[in-house]
């Protein structure tokens, strides 16, 4: 950061680096906002490698995580203290935090700078917020601390009612700004050819592809049940892009269903079209797997404004997604309000197909049947696939970096003007 640089000074804060949707969004914010402001990235510690380097300065608070409950409390306050000192050292004008842990530190260290909190997902429906600590977060920390923010940005419009009704955030402090995508770059990468072995898989049968961390939020296990039922009706392949803590559970579930499973991660067997389900792991270029697929399937239990879904739309492939909170409906059916009761049948929307969630035990059998019927219908209807793929591609133009970060610049400049008048 040059001393001669007269642009406003912006800190963006995240607990950790590494690989994930939040970290990718953090990278995009650093790069795009760095075109207008002096940006410094702040992390709690350097435990994880920087998977998405931006080129902007990075400052670590140097405080580890883990340890006993007492150590965690001490580390928490040490982070608050060190971020407060850093804000003073850099004469910070605006601080933006990504992820809840960074939100707390950002807001408790608040001084004269304007503080923005970015809410990247549903808090009400997040099943990772549970137990006594989850109750403390929902009932005490969020309602108390979020009041300190000058502005709260939600990545989806449908998170705003959560923040007002559940956490008591004043409506005037809330603004929805969607996530953005490197639309042209994604489209360019999607044109890279598959290697010969994978190309043979794609040529052997219709391919359904899904992308995301193998984790509870993404809810991939019922998708295997759907696929097993579909496979009894017509040939198809299912490709999983990504990795995560539930990999072995998903492999076991697939095999229990009688599916032939290929996995690229552990001394794989030769890649041939003889398998039903393909776990290809993390991919530097996932888009070359998505563009030639017959359809993209997205069974998440909850979201924010999902990058994987938006990037699949950018690739011009028809998308089939749960109508989960939040994001998919806003992306696929932006003019249609959410139903009063959860979907129990397919909704062929303007930019994709919204489907029942696959999380309710009482209706799971019927919901799996609905998914199976809908996917069979889609696979048998080439004109519908072409129409939905093109509609999805055009819709993704609404989420370019230029469009979305124009909204961010308007927000930050407005806060800076307000600060100057104070």
UniProtKB/TrEMBL annotation:
CDD domains, per database record = GT4_GT28_WabH-like (cd03811)
The cross-references to InterPro entries, in alphabetical order and at most eight, read: Glyco_trans_1, Glyco_trans_4-like_N
Q: Name one Pfam family in it.
A: Glyco_transf_4
* Domain Glycosyl transferase family span(s) in chain numbering: 201-335
Name the domain of life: Bacteria
Specify the Glycosyltransferase subfamily 4-like N-terminal domain's residue ranges.
Answer: 19-182
What protein does this entry describe?
Answer: Glycosyltransferase
